[in-house]
Amino acid sequence: MNLHFVEKKVDVPAEIREYAQKKLNKLDKYFKVESDATVTFGKEGNTSSAETTVNSDGLMYRAREKAEDYYSCIDKCVNAIEHQIHKNKTRLAKRLHQQVFVREVPPVKNEIDVDEEVDFDIIRQKRFTLKPMTIEEAILQMNLLGHEFFMFKNFEDGNAFSVVYRRGDGGYGLIVSD
Q1: Global confidence as pTM
Q2: DSSP annotation string for 3-64
């Protein structure tokens, strides 16, 4: 596992980095290809925090924990990610056996008044590789990350650029490019 450390306003001793490396290497058994992990250490008052993100073949797992020391944070993060991996595999197996989604989605209308001049400030930019996956896999990935939407290449629709999103009524929506 390729491991990267980020320290936000804190200096973390080498033993804690080694401990994190040892713990996160135990997750390698779940992945077919070598994965990348980022551990971000921080301090909020007297509380230590660690955020761990594991990216394996386009699937991302993330956990953020707070505790009195970094060792506890790392243990909690690894346990949470391991739980997410098991949950993802179980959900995917269940959903592949059921016909859950309807293929047709009503068109989405977005109208912007062109006469009004508005400045759009981009605060943050992310760049990543889109992995071909099914709609079910994309929804699982979105839920694992805790996001409201997720972009992916729709394997079922000839690798068309698609976005799944969580609707206000609790359901899911799908946007597919032409």
Answers
A1: 0.56
A2: EEEEESS----HHHHHHHHHHHHGGGGG-SS--EEEEEEEEETTEEEEEEEEEETTEEEEEE
